[in-house]
Amino acid sequence: MSGYAASAPDFDALIIGAGFSGIAMLHAMRQANLSARVFESAPAVGGTWYWNTYPGARTDSESWYYCFSFSKALLEKWNWTERYPSQPEMRRYFDFALDELGLRPHIQLGTDVESADWDESSRRWTVRTSDGKQTTARYLISAMGLLSEPLYPSVPGLERFEGERHHTGRWPQGGVDLTGKRVGILGAGASAVQFLPHAAEQADHVTLFQRTPNYVFPARNRPISEAQQRELRAGYDTMWEKLRANLFAMPFEGSPANRLATQTPAAERERIYAKLWETGGFRFFFESFDDLLVDAQANETAADFMRRQIGEVVKDHATAQMLMPRDYPLFAKRPPSGQGYFEAFNRPNVRLVDVKRDPVAAFEPWGLRTRSGEQHRFDVLVLATGFKAFTGAFERTPVRGRGGVSLIDHWRRNGVRTWLGCAVRGFPNFFMLGGPQIPFGNAPTIVEHVSELAVGCMLAARRRGADLIEVDERAEREWCDLVDQVMQTTLVRHGDEVGSWFTGANVEGQATSIMVYVGGANDYFRRCREAASDGFPAFAFR
Ligand code: NAP
Asked: Pairing between strand 113-119 and 107-108?
């Protein structure tokens, strides 16, 4: 960046990670004429869409908005083939975007960031990488992903299991041949929901070990014709406008729906649910009624509808009962979207085992044993056990701010604290994209806003001749209080009781903190805009 001392750092910013966040940030930096280098541990870009290659992996947000919005050229040239693109299509999209935006030269693949340290005297970050080098920059950007660090179950004997073992979030790139094998899947979240129907088609037998049943929407994937693609393209401008005004950054038709479940006659309510159930995906929740997230009675009407759908699909009564969530409201855990998930339990080669009633006691060389002594034998163990959401990446990659304190230790000591999910006091010149306390919603659009905010802040610093910026204590406290207050008004707060990653409660032994802002993506975007137009009053510029 021009205007700094002769011993200028190597780059204006170093960015860790080349998924949606890292690429959005790099693009925003280049647009502002700021220099940046991205380090990506994988041999290709895509982040989560590089690692999650398990059969069935695809988005559960619709393709036409689960993508970059900042470039007309990308929107004009790229044709989505399906409503929910598969993982290989997402990989192709990332490669296309990178070439189209000319960003490849600024990304160093296959390079793990081992640590990042702030030096107060030179006011710069030093990043140590797996190639043995050190690189410096004025700013550090974490684009490490919110669901990137796999969570392994703390069940004794995992190492003793002698068959193949794979975490869905680290699936082998070459694939796994399940033909003729007995497969055990631990977990019943979004990854398991997508994987099960594919595993059941290939494998000899599949046992799914479920602790907590999930409310699963039917995704209803379909191809996108060229005519539909043309129509989408023609409506892009209006669509992004609608999306930015939406609570979840999704361009849904009737959202808000301007009606309440509790004030709608039962027959009418049923008709609305049935219609949206056929439409598929998150629309069932977001386009039906406005009180589902805040009113337990309203929420129960949707939960009850969903349980009845499970009862209609799953033929075996006991299995259907086990699959019906009853102990928590819809959206206390992040609900998955599935394609043939419940149907898979009607196959003779699929069995559901309830490991809440009879928990897994230990893995054995041949499979697993439950507390009651029941033995389950399998050749391949699939851990669909999720991620250390938001904070896991900082456990793996130490980011040390003022006084050499690592961010993960700071949060462990004080609870997760941020300003707008992107800056942390004690960590000057540091921004997170996809950090804790960002809004729950369409992630690519949300991280784009954060990238613009971060670059805006850097430019403001340059204009003021400042080489150190840091969020002030009051702004951070006010944001954390708001995140907390808003959470208490919604049913998402029950996530703590059911091991939701929304609060980090899915990680055994971890103190919980509120990790998502449920006050709306639209409200968040407004705050980002205001911060920029007011000259970033939350920051001290030195
Ligand atoms: P998850 O939703 O956290 O589910 C993990 C599953 O593993 C849960 O069923 C959990 O049970 C179970 N589990 C964990 N430890 C266990 C243990 N020791 N014993 C028994 N069961 C155990 O993880 P995920 O399915 O990977 O999904 C995580 C998030 O990634 C999703 O919510 C979504 O945001 C994202 N994702 C998105 C897509 C998509 O867009 N299509 C696909 C996959 C994932 P409990 O519930 O009882 O804790």
From this structure: unpaired
Task: List all residues 6 or more positions away from 158 whose beta carbon is below 8 Å from its beta carbon.
Answer: 152, 165, 363
365 upstream amide cis, omega within 30 of 0:
no
Asked if 476 and 425 count as a contact pair (C-beta separation under 8 A), the reply is yes
With beta carbons less than 8 A apart as the criterion, state whether 484 and 514 touch. yes
Q: If you take atom 32 of ligand 1, which residue's CA is the nearest one?
A: 334
Where does residue 142 rank: exposed (0-12), middle (13-18), buried (19+ CB within 10 A)?
buried
3-state helix, strand, coil in the chain (%, to 5): 35, 20, 45
Task: Tell how strand 375-377 and strand 367-370 pair up.
Answer: antiparallel
Cα of 46 from ligand 1 centre, angstroms: 20
Distance CA 269, CA 273 (A): 6
Contact of 142 with 17, CB cutoff 8 Å = yes
Ligand 1 near 60 CB (within 6 A): yes
Q: What is the C-alpha to C-alpha distance for residues 385 and 159, in angstroms, rounded to an integer? A: 16
CA distance 474 to 481: 10
Contact assessment for residue 91 and residue 52, using Cβ atoms and an 8 Å cutoff: no
- 214-250 exposure pattern, b = at least 16 Cβ within 10 A, e = fewer: bbbbbbebeebeeeebeebeeebeebbebbbebbbbb
pLDDT in tens, 354-366: 999 999 999 999 9
Q: How many Cα atoms are found within 13 Å in the side-chain-facing hemisphere of 385?
A: 20
List beta partners, residue 209.
Answer: 186, 353
SS3 7: coil
What does the pLDDT read at residue 522? 97
| pLDDT lower than 50: segments of the chain | 1-5
Show Cβ contacts of residue 438 under 8 Å, excluding neighbours closer than 6 positions.
146, 420, 421, 422, 446, 447, 450, 516, 517, 524
- Which of 211, 282, 360, 368 gets mutated to test ligand 1 (max ligand atoms within 8 A of its CB)? 211
| Å from CA of 336 to ligand 1 middle | 9
Where are the extended beta strands (E) located within 33-73? Answer: 36-39
Cβ contact 128:134 at 8 Å:
yes
Residues 6+ apart with CB under 8 A from 322: 210, 213, 352, 354
Distance 191 CA to ligand 1 centre (A): 6
Tell me which residue has tokens 């300003």.
Answer: 419
